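User: structure tokens for this one?
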Amino acid sequence: MILVTKNHDFHYETANICRLFVPLEKITIVKETPKTVFELLAITEMKRTEKGAIVSATLLLDDYEESLEDTVLNTELPFMDACELRLATLLYLLLCRLFHTTQSWGVVTGIRPVKLLRQKVESLGMEQAETYFKETLLVSDNKWNIAKRTLESENKILATSKPESCSLYISIPFCPTRCDYCSFVSHTTDRSAYLIPEYVELLKKEIAKTAEIIKELGLQLETIYIGGGTPTSLSADQMADLLHTIANSMDLSPVREFTVEAGRPDTVTKEKLEAIYKAGISRISINPQTLHNHVLEAIGRKHTVEQFYDAYNLARQIGFSFINTDLIAGLSGDTVEGFEETLKGILSLHPENVTVHTLAMKRSSNFVVHHRTDIGKKEDTPQMVDLSNTYLTENGYHPYYLYRQGKTVGNQENIGWSTPGNEGLYNVFIMDETHTILGCGAGAVTKLKEPNGTLIERIFNFKFPYEYNARFSEMLDRKAGILDFYKNHPIP
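Assistant:
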């Protein structure tokens, strides 16, 4: 697909609108209309006038041609934002007509629709915010309702964060194998196990350095999240050693939530779970993604349904009272009926959290790299997501955080569901960008949030474990940026 952007710089948003309808196609962005075209052509244009601007969109494909035009007045403020939204909406409406479909999220393409809703409620009030979402952004009643419910849950959690609050993310970028939908920077242990011992030792040093910074700045650590990758790719001794370092170097008394992902059931052992439990960890994730072995095989997930049940039951026997399980809607080989069976199976276990993701066709995933065509049906995926909303609501769960990714099958969302009082705080804080998140480990990003402000600055760690190990001292020097940030933006 070719996207023409004449006399404007709204290429990012207009391209995102195109991807809602052709998520796997390459979108070539040009400034002038090409003379010869053999694919779908979208022409977007902005013309300034004395009273404002005229924005227009045209679609061309073989003998098909259709255009829409609108006027934006100078009095519509902020003016350029209004032009961008109006132009994106015209393009969206044309694509709806061409593909004979609509999108349940309308023209919302951002990752944080609930954060956008919060801003609109604060400035307009709930009633006008609803009108804005439904009539301006063209969001469906269904998605409006889930966003509003999530907002209510989030607001209670966000109110507990203070200017001095922060959270800590620790990255373990190793997995036993790479799932076909995965795009994260992680290394399979069969090829990179030799890196792990040195990686853990260096990670402990980075954690200790971060602890010093937290203490020096007077920050208050609210949540800790050990993710990956698969943290339980570490041995039980390595996990215990890492957790011991955290406990010895940091003041954990204010920590309200400590999570370790034990996501891959084939990495879960009694010894590892006991190491986590003895360290006082309050929350773990054990993630089946589906309860059908043929679907697990189709997505390259190297464990069985039986292994998931074994790992889950073992965690309960050891004493874990806070378990999250992840599911994915739209997987290869899955059906609406199969997804419903998975929901029923998970709910019979009564996990405290259930996170329902939508399959995202990420550029670096095996699905995309190898041009896989056996993904879940686009028309089935929204039904799966709707089923999860119905089943989880009926079983006493409520949505507590929500985010969207690009190139999801069926253009759906990811939702975290919780039983009352068991919300995952870290998930809310990071998705809302509530307070500073300090990152340790390869691929981790420190996201510094201005106290009582909106400014955000980022400090990036090296992505790959071999880079992290080889250039550790250079990376550790970057931590000085945290002190510099708070020097310029002090805690009141």
